UniProtKB/TrEMBL annotation:
InterPro entries xref list: CheY-like_superfamily (IPR011006), HATPase_C_sf (IPR036890), HATPase_dom (IPR003594), His_kinase_dom (IPR005467), HisK_dim/P_dom (IPR003661), HisK_dim/P_sf (IPR036097), PAC (IPR001610), PAS (IPR000014)
Domain PAC: 133-185, 257-309, 391-442
Stretches assigned to coiled coil: 293-327
Catalytically driven reaction(s): ATP + protein L-histidine = ADP + protein N-phospho-L-histidine
Originating organism: Paludisphaera mucosa
Residue intervals of the Histidine kinase domain: 460-677
Record Pfam families: HATPase_c (PF02518), HisKA (PF00512), PAS_4 (PF08448), Response_reg (PF00072)
Documented EC number(s): 2.7.13.3
UniProt-recorded name of the protein: histidine kinase
Amino acid sequence: MTEHPGLAPDFQALFEAVPTPSLLVRPDDRFTIVAVNASYLRATRATRESLVGRGLFEAFADDREHPGATDGRDLRASLDRVLATRAPDHMAVRRRDVPRPGGGFEERHWSPLNAPVLSAEGAVAHILHQLEDVTEVVRLRREAGERDVDASAAPIVDDDGRNAGVVVTYHDAGEGRRAEETTSRSEQRFRALVTASSDVMYRMSPDWSEMQPLDGRGLVASSDAPLRDWMQRNLPASEHALVRGAIREAVSARRMFELEHRVVRADGSIGWTYSRAVPILDAGGEVVEWFGVASDVTARKQAEEENDRLEAEAERQRRIYEAALSNTPDLVYVFGLDHRFLYANEALLQMWGRTREDALGKNCLELGYEPWHAEMHDGEIERVAATRRPIRGEVPFAGTNGRRIYDYIFVPVIGKDGRVVAVAGTTRDVTERRQAEQEIREQAERLRENDRRKDEFLAMLAHELRNPLSAIGNAVTLTTRSGLQEHIGWSMGVVTRQMRHLTRLIDDLLDVSRINRGKIELRRELVDLTSILAAAAATAKPSMEERGHTLEVATSHGGLWADVDPTRIEQVVVNLLSNAAKYSENGGLIALRARNEGDEVVVSVRDRGVGIPPETLPQMFELFAQGDRSLARSEGGLGIGLTVVKKLVEMHGGTVDARSEGRGKGSEFTIRLPRAARPVAAAPEGTAPAEGGRIPSRILVVEDNVDAAWGMAQLLKLLGHDVAVAHDGPQGIEKAKEHRPEFVLLDIGLPGMDGYEVASRLRREPSCKDAVIIAISGYGRDEDRRRSKEAGFDHHLIKPLDHDVLITLLAAPGR
């Protein structure tokens, strides 16, 4: 296909197919010719190279042999009218000869038409210059004028009232035969012209009521006789009103009829015609008939409609793509091969903080990318263009959203000739995804570490449980086999110590569980921590003495007042003292210090033991964490004591931290608690309750474990109490009716009827109405205590029993 600079490819085929000789002119100072179609080249026998790119007046300069010629002046005036009015302008018929193939020139006459091509904004973007070859018509007129005739001339006017030609009518003033011959010759030439023309020629009556097609040419059906129903036969009904309006205007003004409209073609299909007709006037200026030419422009109109459809579809697709690209959160863009942005979607413009006009045509460096970043993308664009393969990467960038991480891909854009014409890219913000991935990796690592610690903990738990059980087993076996009194005393001591050790392990486990689930409730009171520290030191004293440690206690004078739960703070200090004893060589020095410091009470425990490695310090208070200290394995421990310490201190609004200068250099743990004001009148310290006497009581023990029930009954009998035993719920209710107990020690986990139901039924028995019912259970959750209270229990003790607590309850005044 011929390339036409200035014409989009979609319009080239249409322009080439137009049968009318046509030039396309740019309305600049030179009126530069930008395109010429094949019809023009055939009609004028010119070459495309001699026309395209030249000024219109350079290509068609006036003939120097005719200084008076006005062709150039008339043409420029017509072009100026088109620019001024933005309407078509018909010029008078011109003579311009064309070269003959064998040499010389052939006379030709043309009827030029200059029409504007408007832009979307309504400005004249180009001017279409078209020619109609009227040489034969001019020749006929000339021959008629040369004969001896009485002639009359009538002007042919266009729709603007200007002269478009002259129609000459004549009759022979000489011999009739000569006139006859001349008329016959002219008629033959006229018929030859009609036959040779590719257009349809027709005559119309003055009022257009009758039409005489001279030759249908397939556009309309030919007819030898005038047609009065020509409009119904040859035009679709939808066109009638349009055509009638144009006819009325032409007849009223006696001006040229010119219209493009639909027509019923000879084969019955609907086509398009471009029709022009001029009035033939008599000497008095009256219209005697109309002579018209109709061109079949169906192919052009179909091409135009198809082009319009393609343009509309392309515009629709463009809007769809633009809408999609503008509304995606991804950044979409296109680089030219010069590394400058040809396109950027709305998301990218917003990220840059720039307008489209400000951004397009610039490269990365000009848009504020860091030099290394711009250089990296320049190299990637070159590689994509050279290899025709995509490139993907990830890069940080600081835009209007702050510094983010972006994942991008560059791909080649391939042209029709197979070469890379641009590089397109998309970029996605992956900051949150990368952060999530990092968090997942860290979480997975934490889970792996927790699994490792859990496995170690379970191994330690098994070890810690087996040790005291092994000691108890050995003591029992020795006593059973020897029966010696000295062995019995020793064995009882072993059993007592190991039971206390097991109780501490279980209490620590339960405390961790309760703290993590938020089930521990602090029973706060305003106390002087001096007494709590003294109690903690007394509790830890046996383990200190067992290892030969020296414990130094130093507290500030004037009281260490705080609003705390005394039991829990004592538990915290005991844990720290026990740790210090455990991780110090025998005969070590351990210091317990306490002081007021600003708004805080500061308590510290320092030892000169094995110390803590620096890499272990950050994890010392985490669950199941335990420093790799040699004494740890010899002294035991589950690695949960410091976790309990940290949680309890934080529940009081305080903090705890650990310091150590390294292995073998000891360690120090420091607690900071909010300080409270000293009460106005504090109770005197050191007051102990009076020791009450032992009061024998009737006691019912309900326990399904026979050994446990027998042992408890024997202990109570040694204390002087009257004891009855039952091993299930129904038996316990019957025993209560007989024994009428003052105290009931009731196991909750009984088979069949559990302890809650037994207690509820005992409360309805007259024999137990005033009895003190004490729950004995392995469950010590807040929920378990609440249920026991609702069932009618007065107290809730945890297995294994603290016998001192039980004895205190049995001796309590008022029962």
